[in-house]
Amino acid sequence: MTRDIDLIKELAAYHAVLVMLSINSLDAGLARKLEPRAASPKLRLAAVEALAKAGVPVGVMVAPVIPGLTDHEIPSVLAAASGAGASFAGTEIVRLPLTVAPIFQEWLEQHVPGKRDKIVSRIRDIRGGRLNDSRFGHRMGGEGNFAQQIFQIFRVSRRKAGLGEEGPALSAASFRRPAGAQMALGL
Q1: Which residue segment(s) compose the domain that 154 sits in?
Q2: On the chain, which terminus has fewer CB atoms closer than 10 Å, C or N?
Q3: pTM for this predicted structure
């Protein structure tokens, strides 16, 4: 995101862009295991800071929250994001559709074997006994006591960090359709 900060900054001047970066852990070691090819939490927070200083509306997604593994970090992630200049935040709880479930369970067995059963059990509790709930309106949230606890911790922590629920409204008022015929791709 920061590579194109000059372009993003210009779009922000027209209220035509906002940026959200996902951060689900501040633990660099855990983050490296979860997302081995992704930017570290420190670099993500630096990107939040650079974008905010450039006047770009920036928020964070504390996602995916993994119950029993990363849920305890919600307050610290939101506080760090606010300190870096984020102005809004959202969250989603992990879901394990189709072929993702066995890969994730294998990952748990390899990296946190003592927590595997607890984590899988909590995901099942949140997903109505399954590892995924694909129903619209449910798949990014969850239900039950653990889901309610996670969302309550998130809401309270977001409020304490001074972060909004949503980013600013965006506008397409400055966009103009190019005149003339549609350009050919030249394939």
Answers
A1: 2-94+135-161
A2: C
A3: 0.91
Give the integer Cα–Cα distance in Å for 39 and 45.
10
- What DSSP assignment string belongs to 44-75? HHHHHHHHHHTT--EEEEEEEE-TTTTGGGHH
Q: What is the pLDDT of residues 165-178, one digit of tens each?
A: 999 999 999 988 77
In a domain, residue 110? The reply is no
CA distances from 139 to 22, 50, 125 (A): 18, 32, 13
Domain containing 51 — which CATH number? Answer: 3.30.750
The low-confidence residues of the chain, meaning pLDDT below 50, are none
Measure the CA dihedral 23/27/32/38, to 10°.
20
Residue 186 has a pLDDT of 66
Domain count, the chain: 1
Report pLDDT digits (tens) over 45-57: 999 999 999 999 9
Confidence at residue 187, expressed as pLDDT on a 0 to 100 scale: 66
